[in-house]
Specification:
319 residues, alpha/beta, TIM Barrel, 2 domains, six-stranded parallel beta sheet, 11 helices, 40% helix, globular
């Protein structure tokens, strides 16, 4: 496949969440299931063949003007530090593709679950035929389609809430739907992360508790960023100077805090080409990969004309 040389020095970034064994039923919100291990292997083979996979440190050097990126540079990232990254890691190593994992630091070494996985499990397994959450109209739960619509609707509401409001709503849902099934801890431990880092994995900051930054007070925003920074420095022994905004939701108050701590860039979750030097390093694009992305679909979505058309479409829609 020939790729336009006009795009040779752009940085493309992919973001995955979960890579899973197709023969093992997944747990938690399927919206976060990015690829089966077989599909992921095919994607990494394609990337290794047609692009130049780079490390996070190479991107940091490029942003600092130390060394340019190679043509067709691509960075592969994962959000949230799910334990099933251990399925992806051997595949990444097989194809020589570096990776960067962003971790919310309250989760490693604990049994905490992400609220969206608990929400999905509650809605998917409840015997209730409907639910009315505080402040929302009644929602049917009579079949799989209604349950999926309810999960997505509740998800959109809950992710914008502050911590106390979110927990109050989750408590109300637990009362109405019943507790979600208990599961083992689903996030990599600090020992896991240190072991993977020794093999070449990069680990970056994703706040402490994964809040939507625009919902926070200034004090809360500082605490989420600065505490995550301190946690990673203590547990990993070094600072990787990149940050990922939870849910991809940008808050203009974050960049000055990040710069003061020594960060050189931060990632959102919108498709786009990063023309380094022409775009704010604290608004770097990432393309989300999900189960719909066969290799041909992923290849098509990474071409410069497609990406540029999507950017124009977002501008026209005012997003």
């Amino acid at each position: 496949m020939a790729w336009p040389e006009a795009a040779a020095r752009d940085l493309r970034v992919l973001v995955y969440h979960r890579v899973y064994d197709a023969h093992t039923p997944g747990r938690g919100d399927p919206h976060l299931w990015s690829a089966t291990s077989e599909a992921f292997a095919a994607q990494m083979a394609f990337i290794a063949r047609h692009f130049a996979p780079v490390t996070a440190w190479q991107v940091a050097d490029a942003l600092a003007g130390v060394a340019p990126l190679p043509p067709r540079a691509i960075l592969v990232t994962f959000d949230d530090g799910y334990r099933d990254f251990l399925t992806a890691w051997p595949i990444l190593k097989r194809f020589g593709v570096p990776a960067l994992v962003f971790v919310p630091t309250a989760f490693p070494g604990t049994a905490r679950r992400f609220w969206w996985d608990e929400l999905y499990e509650m809605v998917a397994t409840t015997a209730a035929r409907g639910v009315q959450a505080p402040g929302l109209p009644a929602m049917g739960l009579r079949d799989a389609q209604e349950r999926w619509r309810a999960v997505r609707r509740l998800n959109r509401v809950i992710k914008g809430l502050r911590a106390q409001e979110r927990e109050a709503l989750m408590d109300a849902l637990r009362d109405r739907l019943g507790e979600a099934r208990a599961v083992q801890a689903e996030v990599l431990s600090w020992d896991d992360l240190r072991g993977l880092a020794a093999e070449g994995l990069a680990v970056g900051a994703h706040t402490v508790t994964h809040p939507a930054l625009p919902s926070l007070t200034a004090e809360e925003l500082h605490a989420e960023i600065e505490t995550a920074h301190a946690d990673l420095t203590r547990e990993m022994g070094h600072l990787l100077p990149f940050f990922a905004y939870p849910y991809g939701l940008v808050d203009e108050r974050a960049a000055p805090v990040l710069r003061a701590l020594g960060y050189v860039g931060a990632f959102i979750s919108l498709l786009g080409r990063n023309r380094l030097g022409r775009r704010s390093p604290f608004l770097l694009y990432r393309q989300s990969v999900d189960r719909r992305h066969s290799v041909p679909a992923l290849a098509a979505s990474m071409t410069a004309p497609y990406v540029d058309l999507r950017e124009v479409w977002r501008l026209l829609r005012g997003r």
